[in-house]
Queue: 3 jobs
Job 1
Amino acid sequence: MENLENNVNVMPRIGDKAPAFEAVTTQGKISFPSDFKGKWVILFSHPADFTPVCTSEFMTFGKMAAEYEALNCQLIGLSIDGLYSHIAWLRTIKEKIEYKGMKDIEIKFPLIEDVSMKVAKAYGMVQPGESETQAVRAVFFIDPKGTIRTIIYYPLSLGRNFDEIKRILIGLQTADNFKVALPADWRPGDDVIVPTAGSCGTAKDRMEDKSGELTCYDWFFCTKKLSKEEVEKKLGK
C-alpha cells in the first residue's frame, strides 16, 4: 500500500506479491487480490476507452472469456478513464461494433476505473517515455496465491497476441502441476523438459536412463513425453 499512497511509479517483478488495492469497476467494487483468492488472474491495462486497438482487444477478450473461466482465470481490465466512460464504451462495443466476425460482445469481467492512476502506477503501467497520461498495454499473470508469475508489456500502437496470452496461462499451470519446464513454442502434447541433474539424480543417471521415459540431448537437456490429455485433466488448478 505504501507505493499506492506515495503515488510512486513502480514496476513489480516476477515472484513479487501482487500489489493490493481497492477499486471501483464496471462490476462493482473489488479488493485485489483478496477477492480472487484461489483463482488465476490476468490483470491487463489499456491506454484509453473509445480507441480502436483497445476495442479490438476487448472484443477478443470478451469472445474468449469462457475459455479463461474454464481455466479458473479471472480477467480484470484497467485504464485511466472514469466509470461512466467505461460503461458507455462497453455498451458501444456490444451494440454497434462488428469486427472479424465478432459482434454483440458483452464484457462481463471487471474494468477498473483509475482516473487517479494509483493502480496503474503501482503496477508500473504508466511509462512516461511512451505516455504520461495513458497506461501501456501491460499484462500481469497472477497465480492463486497472489504471486506475479509473468509480465508482458506492449507499446500503445501494438495489439496483444491473445493466442500467446492463453498459451502462457496454460504453460504456467502445466509447469506447476507436473513440476516441469517447457521448451520454446511448447503446446499441450509436446515433450516437456525434466528438472536438471542437480535436482533429479546425477548426470550419469539421466544419460543412462533405461526406463525409456527420457530423451537426453546432453546431461543438462532431457525431455519426456506428456500427453495433451494429461495436461488438460489438470488445467484450471
Note: The CA atoms of residues 189 and 228 lie 4 Å apart.
Job 2
Amino acid sequence: MQDRGKRNRKRIFPDERRRWLEQYEGGKSQSALAKETGRNIRTITTHVQRASDERERAIARTDLYRQAFTKHNKDLLAALEGARQSLVVPHAELLTVLVHFPWDKAYMLPAGLEFQDGVLSLASVRSDEDQIRILELAREHLRRDKELWNGLDEWWSMLKEYADECLELGRRVGAKASEKLAVELTSREGSATGLEEGLHEGFVSWPCRLSIEAAPGKVTNDHIDEIKVTDSQLRYGGDTIATLSSPEKRDAARAYFLELITTLPQDPSVRKVARQKRQLDSDARRLRRLIGDALLMGFVPGRCSVCKRLGL
C-alpha cells in the first residue's frame, strides 16, 4: 500500500500541471512552486512546459474545428443558394423545338434538365458529386422542414412532366406542319451562304408560345401582326420562321401559320401545359422564399453526418 501511495504521489495529473502553469503565468516562480508542492524543480519545469504545449494543441484543434465548421456552413449555404437559383421554369417555346432543332436550343436549358437523343431527363442541380453530397447534407440539417424538401421533390417531378408535355406538343406541331406543307424542318443557320430552305424554329415556337399565353386568358395582340415577306423568307416577331423559294409554298405556309395561332389555344394539351406552368411558377416563388429564410440566418441549423464527425 505504501509503494502504491508513493507511485501515485509521483504521478502528476493534467489538471495539476494546468494549475501550475496558471500560477506560473500569474507570477509565481518555478522554485516557489517546487517548494510549495514538494516537487523537484525539474519536474515543475517539465510539466509547466507540457501544460503549455497541451494548451497550444487544444487551441489549434479548436481553431481547426472552427475553420472546418465555417467551411461546412459556407458549403451548405452555397448548396441551398444553388437549389434556389435552379427553381426556374424554362420557356415552353424553348422546350417545344428541342426535338426538331436540338443543336440550337439544348444548351439554354436551365439547371435540372438534360436533353439527349430526343429525350428530356432530370439531372441534379449540381453535376459535381461533392456538390450533390453537400445538398444531401443540407437536407439532413433541415430534415424537419418537410414543406421545403417535399416541395422541392414535387417541384422537380412536376417540372419533368411539364417538360415532357411541351416536348410532345412541339413534336406534334412541327411534324404536322412539315407534313401538311411538304416542307422540311431545318435550322435557321444551317448554311454558310444563308438560311436553309425549310421551316425554322419560330414556325413551331411562336404558335406554341402564343397559344400557351392565350390559354389561361391572357390578352395578347401578337397574333394580329402581319407576317413579313422578304424575298424568300417569312418573318414573324423579329424571327425568320421559314425560307421558301416557291411563292405558292410561302403563301401556304403563311396561311397555315396564322391558322395555328388561331386554333392551337383551344388544344387540350396546350391548356394543360399552361396550367402546369402557372403551378410551377407559383410553387417556385414559395420554395425560393423558404430557402431564402434559411439563407438570411447566415447559418444552417441542425446536424448532419459530417457535423457528428467533427464532434459538433
Note: The radius of gyration is 35 Å.
Job 3
Amino acid sequence: MTDLPAPLVSTEWLASHLGEKDLAIIDGSWRMPGCGMASDDYRKRHIPGAVFFDIDAIADKSTDLPHMLPPPEDFAAAVGAMGIGDGDRVVVYDDQGLFSAARVWWTFKAMGHESVAVLNGGLKKWLAENRPVTDEATHPAPKTFHAELIPWRVADAAELRAGLKEGACVLDARPEGRFHGKDAEPRPGLRSGHMPGANNLPAASLIAQDGTLKPPEALKKIFAAVGVRDGARVITSCGSGVTAAILSLALEAIGRTAHGLYDGSWAEWGDERNDPALFPVEAGVR
C-alpha cells in the first residue's frame, strides 16, 4: 500500500492509484441553500469509483444548526455503508476546485480517521486535464468503520469565547463584506458583523486561480499577516463551518496542528435570538 500524501494529493497521484482496493474516493460537493443539489451533478459525472458524501444528511439531526458534526456512531454507520473502512485511504474532492471537500476532510479527521486527504484542485482541475469521469453508479460493499471524536479538532461557542479572552487567534473565513457587516448574511435570522477580536481571512484568498491551495510559503505569509503566531492555538470559523475547514486544511498543509474549527460558526454565534452579552457582535472596520 502506498502512503497517502496528506493533507493534499495531486491529480497525478490520484490518477495513478485509481482502482486500488483500499482507496476510497469521495465527492464532497455541496451547494449553498437555493443553489441546486450537488448530488444531481454527481450523478451526471464523477471520478470513477467515487461515492457521494451529503454534508447536510450526514449531520447532527438534534439541532437546527446546519450540517453540524454527527454523533460518532452515526458517522461510522453512514461511511461504512458507503464502503469506507477503518484501514482505507480516503481522498475527497468537490466540483469547485477547493470548497466543501475540506469540510468532509475535517469531519474524517475530527472522527479520528487520519488517512484522509483532499484532491488539490478537485474535479475542476481533473476535468481540465481530461482525466476520466463517469455517470455509472458506484455500489461498494459495506465495510466496518469505527469513529471516535477528537475533541481538540472541534471548538464550541464556550471555547471560542474563552479563546478570544486568552489570546487564541480566531480566523473568520467569510468574505470581507459579510465579516464587516456591509453585506447581508445568506441565511435569514442572522445579525451582520463578526465576533469582537476575530480576524478576517477569506477562504478564497488561500486558493489559486486553478482551484488549488496556494503553496506553503505563500500560505505562511498570509497566516502571519492575520496574527497566527508560532505555537498559538487557532480557531477557524465561517458562516456554517464549511469554508472554515479550508483554513484548517491550509494550516495543516503548513504543518500546524494546534487548531480547532468552530462547528456552529456564524449560524450559531450570529443568531439574532442570542443574548448579546454572551454572543457579542461587532461591525465595521477596526
Note: The chain has a mean pLDDT of 96.
